[in-house]
């Protein structure tokens, strides 16, 4: 079994010929050749004493040459690059914006890599490809930052609970040679790897209620997002892509367990509230007994202290309003 991998390509930035210099030169040569062709035909038609047939042939053969050379003109917008391929061989990448001229036989490409992926993504609402994209020819690649708003995925967290999770990824092409030659379709590659990374990340963390000092998806969104970005960068570096940002956009329990988990969260909230109420009530009762003893307001034996503690706890911990009974007799009647 051959496990050898192809070596990664590396971008070679080159400077193209200025198109504004080549345009008047080629147009001038074309017009001069047309004038020469017309003049030679006229002299030949009027039976000139020394007709130059070779000049007619040469000027007629040069006409398609100048027209073909004019097709080498192309423009690049800011943050746009063109990968130059000559008969299957990589010659370099032009990154400078403006009008340029290159070999007319450079491969133009019918569409930019990944445009088919953008077409398919356009059929899915909420995805990055939902907006219509302009088809780029001449092997042009956009260097602008782009956003991949992934679909909501149903996965299992670290504890096996089914959850729904979604993320948004901001990325851009850094190495055009890797994006063009090291992967078959870099946009499809990014979409697939983003989904795979998100599934893997969700399986590493619990949704909530983690152990002590354990990161969870709900409580540690920043840390989880940083881990997602690091994993995506490791996977997408092969395609010459840089991940600027990756953040979770959706996180929830799956519908089949959402109600059960809601009841559990409510029960946990009630228990936590009761613990706080009891802790506060015990502190207030202890303070009341100490204040009464220090200021010698009343002397209470153990039995009366127990009764007082019971009454205060009922008053402080009860959910409904307490209606006290006033004792109008003696202390012990």
List the keywords:
three-stranded antiparallel β-sheet; 3 domains; single chain; Tetrahydropterin Synthase, Chain A; 44% helix; four-stranded antiparallel β-sheet; 10 strands; 333 residues; 8 helices; alpha+beta
Folded structure, characterized:
The protein is built from eight helices and ten strands. It has 333 residues and is α+β, with helices and mostly antiparallel strands. It has three domains: 17-101, no CATH class; 115-253, Tetrahydropterin Synthase, Chain A; 259-317. Strands 7, 8, 9 and 10 form a four-stranded antiparallel sheet that branches. The protein has a three-stranded antiparallel sheet with strand order 1-5-2, covered by helices on one side. Strands 4-3-6 form a three-stranded antiparallel sheet. The longest helix is centred in the last third of the chain and has 40 residues, at 255-294. The protein is rod-shaped and about 150 Å long. The model is unreliable at 111-135 (pLDDT under 50).
């Amino acid at each position: 079994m051959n496990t050898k991998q192809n070596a990664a390509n590396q971008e070679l930035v080159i400077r193209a010929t200025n198109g504004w210099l080549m345009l008047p030169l080629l147009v001038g040569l074309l017009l001069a050749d047309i004038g020469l062709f017309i003049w030679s035909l006229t002299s030949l038609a009027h039976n000139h004493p020394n007709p130059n047939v070779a000049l007619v042939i040469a000027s007629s053969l040069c006409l398609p040459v100048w027209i073909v050379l004019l097709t080498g003109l192309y423009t690049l917008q800011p943050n746009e690059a063109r990968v130059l391929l000559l008969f299957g061989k990589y010659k370099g990448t032009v990154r400078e914006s403006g009008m340029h001229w290159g070999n007319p036989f450079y491969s133009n490409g019918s569409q930019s890599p990944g445009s088919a992926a953008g077409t398919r993504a356009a059929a899915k609402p909420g995805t990055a490809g939902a907006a219509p994209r302009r088809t780029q020819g001449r092997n042009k690649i956009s260097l602008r930052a782009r956003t991949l708003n992934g679909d909501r995925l149903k996965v299992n967290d670290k504890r096996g609970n089914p959850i729904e999770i979604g993320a948004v990824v901001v990325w851009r092409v850094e190495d055009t040679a890797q994006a063009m030659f090291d992967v078959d379709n870099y946009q499809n590659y990014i979409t697939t790897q983003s989904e795979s990374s998100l599934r893997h990340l969700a399986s590493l963390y619990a949704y909530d209620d983690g152990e002590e000092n354990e990161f969870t998806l709900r409580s540690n969104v920043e840390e989880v997002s940083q881990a997602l970005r690091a994993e995506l960068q490791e996977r997408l570096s092969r395609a010459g892509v840089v991940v600027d940002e990756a953040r979770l956009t959706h996180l929830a329990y799956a519908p089949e367990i959402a109600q059960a988990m809601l009841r559990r969260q409510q029960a946990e909230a009630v228990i936590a509230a009761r613990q706080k109420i009891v802790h506060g009530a015990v502190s207030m009762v202890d303070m009341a007994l100490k204040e009464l003893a220090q200021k010698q307001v009343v002397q209470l034996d153990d039995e009366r202290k127990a009764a007082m503690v019971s009454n205060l706890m009922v008053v402080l911990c009860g959910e409904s309003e307490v209606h006290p009974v006033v004792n109008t007799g003696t202390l012990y009647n």
